[in-house]
Design a protein that fits this description.
about 110 residues, mainly alpha, two-stranded antiparallel ribbon, two-stranded antiparallel sheet, 4 helices, about 50% helix
Length: about 110
């Protein structure tokens, strides 16, 4: 089970059914890890939370979908298209969860 960033490729192929084959999968996961690491807080918690691995997976799926859909913001046949853009927003929210400005005051 090769580990790439915060995930291992065997686990990813179980969770991402239409994942590309190796070595493209490892390359996507490495790129996604670099992007997520740059956006994550400078000081990572130890151990790294599971949500970081999920963020890496979503980022990899986003990169893969954008590569397949070109400049479009969705992929798939008419009537069954899915949006590719929100995946990156979801990945970012997993890396830096939003807190209410009133958190802890009430």
């Amino acid at each position: 089970m090769p580990t790439v960033g915060w995930v291992d490729t065997e686990d990813i192929t179980d969770r991402w059914l239409d994942a590309p084959e190796e070595p493209e999968l490892s390359e996507l996961l490495e790129i996604a890890h670099d992007v997520c690491s740059a956006y994550a807080p400078a000081k990572l918690p130890s151990p790294v939370p599971a949500r970081y691995g999920k963020a890496q997976l979503l980022q990899a799926q986003h990169i893969y979908a954008r590569a397949k859909s070109g400049n479009g913001d969705s992929i798939g046949p008419d009537g069954y298209q899915i949006s590719t853009y929100p995946l990156v927003l979801e990945a970012r929210s997993l890396l830096r969860p939003k807190r209410s400005p009133l958190a802890g005051l009430l």
